[in-house]
Write a structure and sequence with these properties.
288 residues; alpha/beta; 12 helices
């Protein structure tokens, strides 16, 4: 473990052991319109080895937040009079891995909630060794063997079970590097393919890689097709009519230690990301 990782671990442990996370949640509950606030969690794979840790996260979250699906999140954004009984929490998963279908979705259902699964059509169209090779070369996840994707049939089943499928670019492209001439292919044609598979409109989009791996021109294409744009940038979402334009997401992997999940989901890391949220909103001509 590096010195930086050790220092981070010590800060997280101390914050949780001293109850700083509980105080942060208490301030949120006493703040303005707590029933219009949502913590959106971002994870990737949910393989079998992560199931127990993910259940512990869901158990903790269900006691401190109102677990919601994308339909309820949409209602919050669209109806200013609608409120939750307490701050909400929405779970999202990037890359469309088979493990999300096999494990992640089922754990969410155990707790009576549903998730948003952002898929990559070029990956989901592959099988076996070709899919694993695509994962290793394009998605670059933590697995050394490469992951298999969920198929179009899996996507349709998830939608039938109440989950949401979103667009994550056609090839898991870093949009900040994609030429303007290829943006339609990465964003619009990707959405067309997903909609053909699931026979539903795809309202949600999430870009890949880092918080700043986006360009103003790519963002304009996204906004022309998708009303809800999810970022890989941590922060608390406060529902308002303009919320869908930039939806902050807090990265907590399914296999994360519960202390890390408590630290991040209680908002103790939000201030660290404030300048990046402001920079991103300015770059994309949105207010933070």
């Amino acid at each position: 473990m590096s010195l930086r990782s050790l220092a981070r671990r010590l800060v997280i442990d101390a914050s949780v052991l001293t109850g700083a996370d509980a105080r942060a949640r208490s301030r949120l509950s006493r703040g303005p319109a707590p029933g219009r606030c949502v913590r959106v969690a971002l994870a990737h794979g949910t393989d079998a080895s992560a199931v127990d840790a993910f259940r512990r996260q869901l158990d903790w979250a269900s006691r401190h937040f109102e677990l919601i699906g994308f339909d309820t999140f949409q209602t919050l954004c669209q109806d200013p009079s609608f409120t939750l009984k307490r701050p909400g929490m929405l779970f999202t998963f990037d890359d469309g891995m088979l493990s999300n279908f096999e494990h992640g979705a089922r754990v969410l259902e155990e707790f009576g909630t549903r998730g948003v699964f952002f898929v990559v059509p070029a990956y989901s169209a592959l099988e076996g060794s070709a899919a694993r090779a695509f994962f290793k070369s394009n998605i670059q996840g933590r697995s050394t063997d490469g992951e298999l994707p969920m198929s179009p049939d899996h996507m349709r089943e998830l939608v039938d079970r109440g989950h949401t499928i979103g667009n994550h670019t056609r090839t898991h492209a870093r949009l900040s590097l994609v030429p303007d001439s290829e943006l339609d292919e990465q964003i619009l044609r990707s959405a067309d393919q997903i909609e053909q598979w699931i026979r539903r409109r795809v309202d949600a989009f999430a870009w890949t890689f880092a918080w700043d791996a986006i360009s103003p021109s790519a963002y304009r294409v996204i906004r022309a097709r998708h009303p809800y744009c999810f970022t890989p940038c941590p922060g608390l979402v406060r529902a308002a009519p303009d919320t869908p334009r930039l939806i902050w997401r807090t990265n907590v992997e399914a296999d994360a230690d519960l202390r890390l999940a408590r630290f991040m989901c209680s908002g103790l890391g939000d201030e660290i990301w404030r300048s990046r949220r402001e920079k991103l909103a300015t770059m994309l001509a949105e207010r933070p």
